[in-house]
Amino acid sequence: MTKRAQVARNRTSLRTHVGEWAHRRFELDHNQVILPGKIALRLNGLLQNSSGWRRWYYNGSSRGALSLRVNPWKNTTVIANYENGQINSHVTRPLNAFDALALWQASSSATLNDAAWTTANRATGINRNTAVKNIYITPGSGAAPFVVTTKNVTNFRLSESTYDDLNLAADLRAGLSMVPASQIPFRISTFGPGAWRDTNFDRVITTFKQRLAPNLTLELAYNRERSKQWVKAPVNNSVLFTGDPNTVIPDPAGGATPVANPNTRALYLESRWVVDRGQTGNDVARASLAWELDLGKTFGRHKLAGMAEHGELSAFRYPGVEILADAARVPIGNAALPENAAIFVFRRHYVVPGNFDTYFVGKGTDDFTVLRVGKTYHNTFINSSVAGVFIDRTVATLLAATQGAFFDSRLVITAGIRGDRIRFDQHSDTRLSANDPDVRAGLAIQNTVKFTAEVVDQTEFKPITSTLGGVFHATKVFSVFYNHANNNAQTPLNARVLPDEKLPPPFDGLSDDAGFMLNLLHGKVFLRATAFQTSQKKSSGGTFAMGLNSSDNNLVAPSTRILATLLAANRITATEHTAHLIGDKANLTGTSDIVNRGYELSAWFNVTKNLTAVVNFCYPKTDRFSVVPEFEGWFERENAYWQRTPGSGALVNSASGLTIDAEAASLQRMMAGVREFYNFGYGERPYKGNVSGRYTMTEGKFRSAFVGSGIRWQGTSALGRAYLGRAPNGNRTFGAT
Q1: What is the spatial distance between Cα 498 and Cα 496, in angstroms, rounded to a whole number?
Q2: CA 20 to 30 Å from 113, out of 81, 239, 409, 415?
Q3: What residues does each domain of the chain span?
C-alpha cells in the first residue's frame, strides 16, 4: 500500500542501502503538515539499481508517490494518493544452454559442405537443416555481421552439429540436455545484454472515510491503475550451443553459388528473438460499512462489515516475432502472412572459446539491414498472433462478514459470504488492410494481426463463496479450532478449454482445517497443530498448465490435418474448416482437479526476555486427477462431424499419410498420454521445516542489540516424471517422479 500523509507532525527520512552485486537503493520519505490536524502532504521517492551473480543480470526501479490527507471535520478523512513508476530488469532463465555439440565433438568436429552431406553423417553428429529462415550472424569475435537466407535446395542449406545420432529412434535418444558447467558456467546468462523487461505503472487511490457514530464507519474508495509491459528475449528455453561444420555457406549477397564459410568449426549460440507487449487498465469503486456491537459477556461482542464493489478491467497482450521487411514495410516473403515461420529471423553469435563475455545469443536490441536482389531489408518486430487475448472484465460484488466473541471471548466465531457477477467480453481480431491508418503512416505492416473494439464472445459467471469457522478456548492452556470455506479463483484470461474454446470457469475450491493449540508456561511456549485439506475443481493455467497444442500433447495438429483432408476432398467448405479449427485464437489448455492435504506443526518459544525461537514443520500431499474431462464431449461431437459423409474416415492426408480414422485414433491415444503424464502432484514438496532463533540484549550499553539465526529445509520438489521410453502405440511411458 502506498504510504499515506499524516497530519500530526513533519517528518523526513532519507535511507540508503548498499549491498553486493552493485546493489544501490536510495529512498526519500517526507511528510509535510500544511494545516495541523487538518491537511498534510507526503512525498516518497525511490531509486534502485543492482546487478546479480549472473553475467548481464540487472534490476532497476524508479518510483515516485504523492499523498494528500484532508480532515475537514472531526470524523471525516479524505485521502488521495498518486504513484508512478518504472521497473526494468534483465530477462533470463535458470539454465545455461542446450547442448548440440557432444556427438559432433566426440567425432573430431568433422566438416563438410551441403552437397556432400548424407544421412550417414548423422552418426558423427552432423545433421542438415532444411528449414527456410534468415540467420543474422552478429558481430561476434570482432567480425563484420551478415545475413544468410536458407532454402531447402542445393547451395542454400546448412548443416549443424548435434548432441545425438538423429538416425536413432526417438525413444533411444537422450533428447534435450544441458551444456556442462565446464563449457558454460551457470553464472553466465546466455540470453545476453539485450534481453530485458520494462514495466511502467500509474495508479490513483482515493478514500473517503466517515464515522457516522462511535461504532459505525462508512468508507468510499476509488482505485485506478494503468500498467504497460514490454519484454524482448530469446524464445523460452531454446538457446542452443552449437558447432559449425559447414565449409561453405549460402551467399550472403543472395547469389546462387555458395561462398567459403569464415566460421568453420567455430562454436556459436543461436535462438530466435521474440517480444511480448501488453497493457492493463483497472478501475474499482467500493463502498463499505463497518459496525461494532457489544451485547455483554453472554451474547458477546460483534464486528460486522458489508461491502459493495464494482470493477472494470481491460487487458490485452501481443506476442511478437522478428522478421525482415523493406523500406515500404513489405515482408521479405509471404506478405499475406507476415508472421509466417519462413521469414523469421534467427540470431547467431559465434563465441571466443574461454571468453565467457562472448557466450550469449546475440543482442536483440541491435538493428541491421540486408541487401537482397537490389532491395534493402531491415529487421522489425511484428505481432505474431492474438494468443495474448484482448478481454474486458466487469465484476460486481456484494460481501458481508462478521466476527463474534461469546462467553467472555471463550468462543470466537467468524463467518462471511460473498457473491460476484463476473462478465468477460472477448474482443475480435483482424488483419490490417492497406488503408489502415497505421499502415499508411508506415507504423505497421499490412496483414499484421491486431485486436478490434468489436466484442465477439461474452461469458458470465455468478460464483458464491463463504467461510465459517471458530475457536474454542476450553481452558487457559488448551484450545481447538475449525474452519470450512469455499472459494473461486480468477480465470486465466488467455486460456481456452474444450469443447467450444471458451474461457474456463472460475476455479471452484473447498478448504477445511482443524487443530488444537497449547499455551504452556504462562505463554512462554505456544504450540499449534493443524490438519488441512484444500481442493480445486476444474483448475487450469498456473505453473503446471496443460498446453494442448505442442509436443506430445498436441491435439491441434491431428485435428487440423483432419479438417485439411476433408477440405481437400470437398467434403466441407472453407468456412466450415475455419469454424472447426481449435487452438487458433488463444492458448488451448485442459482442466484438472487438485487436492492438497497434510499437517502443520508450529512452536513458539519465549523462554526468557532475551531468548525467542520458532520451529515449523509441514507435511503436504498433492493429488491431481480428472485430467482434461472436457475432451470426450469435444471428441464425440467433432468425430461425428468428421464422419458425417460416407467413406470420409478412409480419406488420407497428403502430409502425414494417415487416414482420418487413424488421425482420430491418435487423438485418443494422445489424450491417454496426457492423462498419464499429468496425473500426479506436480510441484509437491513432501516435507518442509524451518527453525529460527534470536537473542536480544535487554540491559546495559548494548541494550536492544540482537543476534539471530535460522535454517530452512525442504524436500525435493516433484517437477517431472522419469521417461522410460515409448509403448508400441507411440505413447510415452513413465516411471517415478
Answers
A1: 7
A2: 239
A3: 1-52, 98-193+234-276+320-369, 390-734
DSSP letters spanning 616-660: EEEEEEEEEES-STTHHHHHHHHHHHHTSSTTGGG-B-TTT--BH
Nearest to 43 by CA among 7, 8, 16, 3: 3
Block residue for cell numbers 555457406: 249
Cell numbers given for 525: 511456549
pLDDT of residue 705: 92
Of 677, 676, 671, 709, nearest in space to 690 by CA? 709
Whether residue 137 contacts residue 131, with contact meaning beta carbons closer than 8 Å, is answered with no
Q: What is the pLDDT of residue 141?
A: 61
CA–CA separation, 556 and 550 (whole Å): 8
Other beta carbons within 10 angstroms of residue 513's beta carbon come to: 16
For residue 637, report the phi and psi dihedrals to the nearest 5 degrees.
-65, -50
Contact 126, 245 (CB under 8 A): yes
Give the pLDDT confidence score for residue 698 in this predicted structure.
86
Cell of 35: 494545516
pLDDT of residue 79: 97
Give pLDDT, residue 142. 67
* pLDDT at res. 486: 94
Report the chain's terminal Cα–Cα distance, integer Å: 41
Burial 77-113 (b: 16+ CB within 10 A, else e): bbbbbbbebebbbbbbbeebbbbbbbbbbebebbbbb
3-state SS assignment for residue 362 = coil
- Residue 74 neighbours by CB under 8 Å, 6+ apart: none
pLDDT at 545: 76
Instruction: Report CA Rg, the chain.
Output: 31
Torsional class of 671: left (φ above 0), alpha (ψ -120 to 50), beta (otherwise): alpha
pLDDT tens column, 182-199: 999 999 999 999 999 999
Return the closest-CA partner of residue 201 out of 312, 316, 84, 313.
84
SS3 content of the chain, % helix, strand, coil (to 5): 15, 50, 35
pTM above 0.70, yes or no: yes
Place of cell 543492482: 50
